[in-house]
């Protein structure tokens, strides 16, 4: 799986393999850039409309607030924050999010 992203770490150390942290700089809204997935398998792909991430939706309930969402891919978890207009009962559902490549940043992550 590959997708374009902006490197937000030190440019001198950009070459080579890295553990990374994803940052998706987007406000997610159900029905606009977040929707049910037609296929139930993880995927990252790009076309002329943008970059698409497909995975299982994980939700963390917070008292008196909308749940915090994350997208679970194969060995990757991407925090989404709150998804405006998210229907009830979506935990574990397969969803697809889409955004422009310039909204994606990756940072080096030390394990």
Describe this structure in words.
With 111 residues, the chain is mostly beta strands. It has one domain. The protein is 0% helix and 50% strand. It contains no helices and 11 strands. It has strands at 6-7, 20-24, 28-29, 34-36, 43-47, 50-62, 65-72, 77-81, 83-84, 94-99, 104-108. The strands form 3 sheets. Strands 4, 5, 6, 7, 8 and 10 form a 6-stranded antiparallel beta sheet that branches. A 3-stranded mixed beta sheet has the order 1-11-2, with no helix packed on it. Strands 3-9 form a two-stranded parallel sheet. Strand 6 and strand 7 (65-72) form a beta hairpin.
In angstroms, what separates the terminal alpha carbons? Answer: 22 Å
The level of helicity is: under 10%
N-to-C SSE series? EEEEEEEEEEE
Mean pLDDT: 86
Briefly, what is this?
The chain is mainly β.
Descriptive terms for the model:
mainly beta, 111 residues, six-stranded antiparallel sheet, 11 strands, 0% helix, three-stranded mixed sheet
Secondary-structure map:
Elements: E1 6-7, E2 20-24, E3 28-29, E4 34-36, E5 43-47, E6 50-62, E7 65-72, E8 77-81, E9 83-84, E10 94-99, E11 104-108
